[in-house]
Specification:
Layout (H helix, E strand, L loop, with lengths): L8 H17 L9 H11 L2 H13 L6 H26 L10 H13 L7 H22 L2 H24 L15 H10 L6 H25 L10 H15 L5 H12 L1 H15 L14 H24 L10
Length: about 325
């Protein structure tokens, strides 16, 4: 199923918004302002990675390509950057940096990378690679599935993951059934495909704007009052719903040529921005003049402004790397 480049402009918007929210989520702001404002910004940022999963599901599950083509493309775009950036973060944190090169160092790096992410935000690779391995099977399902089958898949995932997690977190109920086959982020993948099938009326869009505001504000209040990590988990009921609302709303944005020309280069750099921004923010906090900004003013405006600063500097770094033939493979 082919989709025109015009209709995919909203995907660029999703990528840019997602990358900015990821950067904003990692701002270590220590200044003034209400903690509720900081919490609200954090809640907004929780939709970023799920939006990436949903956009990937929308783009990939409707495609037809051979196993060889699919995995070759994913190896170049995901697996190679995953390995390289895992090593970069190992070196950045000084692990083995002063030791002479040897196969022992290589083996230790490989073992560390296999065990888990070398920096917190790199967990995304571990989930994404798992989804990619499962994608050819999901494509077969999607190609033959009726609408009710897609509803069943997404509904079952919502029950098994967000709802059951809620029950086990806040009630004495413990779920003993083995439901690993439907766990994880596969629901976001399928949800992106499902929600991308429909056209939405203005009345529905208005209702989704209202629901997005109500759920995001409500989640902030719950996070502030209950103090449970569940409500800001990527797989909580509320974050799943907020992300679904955001996905549809962003999909319905009409993007003209001028805005598209602005978004396109940012979108091409969005994956690289995700990869490099942690280093950029850490180094910004060390600069004599800029470091004071992380404790100045009010959270109302400083968190988004610092997020924008980190986002733009990360973009410049990525844009430069993408111009260097030997290095551009690490920020595809």
């Amino acid at each position: 199923m082919k989709t025109s480049s015009l209709t995919l402009r909203w995907v660029d918007l999703v990528r840019v918004i997602g990358a900015f929210l990821v950067v904003m989520a990692h701002i270590s702001y220590k200044g003034g302002g209400s903690s509720l404002i900081s919490s609200y910004y954090f809640v907004l940022s929780r939709v970023a990675v799920p939006l990436f999963f949903m956009a990937s599901g929308y783009l990939l599950l409707r495609k037809e390509e051979s196993y060889g083509d699919f995995f070759r493309k994913r190896a170049l775009k995901v697996f190679v950057p995953f390995l390289i950036w895992s090593v970069i973060y190992l070196l950045w944190k000084g692990e083995g940096f002063n030791q002479p090169f040897s196969m022992k160092i290589v083996a230790s790096y490989i073992l560390k990378i296999v065990r888990g992410p070398r920096e917190n935000h790199l967990w995304f690779f571990y989930a994404l690679i798992g989804l990619y391995l499962f994608t050819p099977i999901l494509r077969v399902f999607v190609a033959r599935a009726a609408l009710r089958d897609l509803y069943y898949f997404c509904g079952l995932w919502f029950l098994v993951v967000p709802v059951f997690s809620f029950l086990q977190e806040f009630t004495p109920i413990k779920i003993g059934f083995e439901l690993y086959f439907i766990a994880g982020y596969s629901g976001y993948f399928m949800l992106g495909h499902l929600l991308g099938l429909f056209q939405y009326t203005r009345r529905q869009i208005s209702g989704l704007v209202f629901l997005f505001l109500i759920f995001s504000i409500g989640t902030t209040a719950l996070d502030y009052i209950v103090k449970s990590e569940y409500f800001v988990s990527y797989l909580s009921m509320n974050i799943v719903l907020i992300t679904a609302f955001a996905f549809v709303l962003l999909r319905e944005v009409q993007i003209g040529d001028t805005l598209n020309n602005f978004l396109a280069p940012l979108s091409r750099a969005s994956f690289g921005i995700y990869l490099v921004h942690v280093i950029v923010l850490a180094e910004l906090e060390k600069l004599p003049f800029i470091s004071s900004w992380f404790s100045a003013g009010s959270s109302v405006y400083m968190i988004p402004l610092l997020g924008l600063l980190g986002f733009l500097i990360s973009f410049v770094v990525v844009a430069v790397i993408q111009k260097i033939p030997v290095l551009r493979w690490i920020v595809p």
